[in-house]
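Section 5.1 Outputs to date
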Amino acid sequence: MAAGIVRPPLEDVEAIRMFLQEEGIALGAHLLDAPCGIGRRAIGLAESGYEITAIDTNEIGIAAAKERIPAAIANRLHLAAVPRDAMPGISAGTRFDAILCLDHALGRRSTADDVAFLRRLEAHARPGGKLILDFLNRDFFASRPRPFAFHTIGSLEQHEFRSFDPVTSALRLEWKFYERVGENLKHRTDSSAELVLLTPRDLAAILGQSGWRMVGAWGGWHREAVTADHRKLIVLATPAG
């Protein structure tokens, strides 16, 4: 692995790839990843054989991601930074076989903003194209009021502090990232987010207002039935027209 290349855990990319192929989105298809974060997932999917256009609002993150693109996939991975209100910011007429809208992109602003964003995505879906979203499961957080969680991602440790308001469905998350160096932890960075957690019914209504039709919701990439034990849910939608 080239120095400086950041990839998601292998099982994440493999699970997404399998989900796409089960939906008939074969290797070589053109995917839109918006928002793409720091490009971890986009790099992994491009290495799997997909052509990826990856968009995010974080200019610094996109600039860093461009520096990490392996030469072998440089012609299959296209990264750009655009303002949220313009996302995906792609020229009219560009169409994709599938659109990935992951990393809990909805619920961070108003419902009207989410509807406008999803409408812009719908304009770039090919006939029969797919929209794949993930979102945090409200029932998971409502049933688990613990304020702290711990996650390991390779050599990184993520310390998560959270608070959930069951009346407004607002979730506040704060993260501290550490890298394990020998027996010690070295602090790397902090991050935070606040969002309103949606139910599958909420999301179906928002999709309906945005020109999409929800066709399925699952408790993970392997299409498990939705329960309160799943932290994240996966939703599949197609253009309603």
